Amino acid sequence: MSNPSYKRVLLKLSGEVLMGEQQFGIDSEFVAELAKEVKAAKETGLEICLVIGGGNIFRGMAGAAKGMDRAQADYMGMLATVMNALAMQNALEQLGVETRVQSAVQMDQVCEPVIRRRAERHLEKGRVVIFAAGVGAPYFTTDSGAALRAAEMGCDALLKGTSVDGVYDSDPKTNPDAKRYQAVDYDTVLADNLKVMDASAVALCRDNSIPIVVFSIREKGNLARVLAGEGTQTIVQKGA
Length: 240
Ligand code: UDP
Prior knowledge:
Layout: E1 8-13, H1 28-42, E2 47-52, H2 60-65, H3 70-94, E3 99-103, E4 112-113, H4 116-124, E5 128-132, H5 142-152, E6 157-162, E7 183-184, H6 186-191, H7 199-207, E8 212-216, H8 222-227, E9 234-236
The structure holds uridine-5'-diphosphate.
């Protein structure tokens, strides 16, 4: 893939990248660095939708494993994603990037509800739109939220910025011979249970022909490189 001609993208950041080097929570200095990357990408003329996870604060599955009611724990996870969205909005606006947060769980005093037409208008005006609270329902993840918003907003690609630099045929942390795919088909990802995003998110992207680009957001300047078709990444697409 070289010089992809994306006009509008959805950038999904897992909550854990907001921790920086911390073990938990939000490292505001690192969030400021991430915001610089987003600003640089926006300055190339791209329209940017953002979805941020909540795993740096709370994951429903972790709560359920400790005996909590799963749905209740998931609501807490969704609230965590709203906190991350507000932290990112703050960091972007400190850099002069106008940003709106739209939450799938309504909280009028804090941010807007998800309204697609209003989000369209924000993007037209050059604002970044952060979609918080995933799909707004328990038993889902923000990956599914990202796939849903990417489809709804007509994004040309879903960029998944995470801690690893792509998709491997086995876990690179435990297998030194693990191989990174340059490109891989959605169906291979699903059949081989490769760690990209959860299955419902991958299927939604497949059914709507939205390529998924997996890359490491931890390396400085990598988002710009990936957008230019350079840098280390894996693209999940049809026929790969
Ligand atoms: N969550 C949910 N429904 C959604 C999105 C998120 O219930 O549509 C909850 C779920 O508990 C999840 C948590 O929010 O574990 C945080 O999101 P996620 O695990 O996707 O964050 P990430 O792994 O990307 O940091």
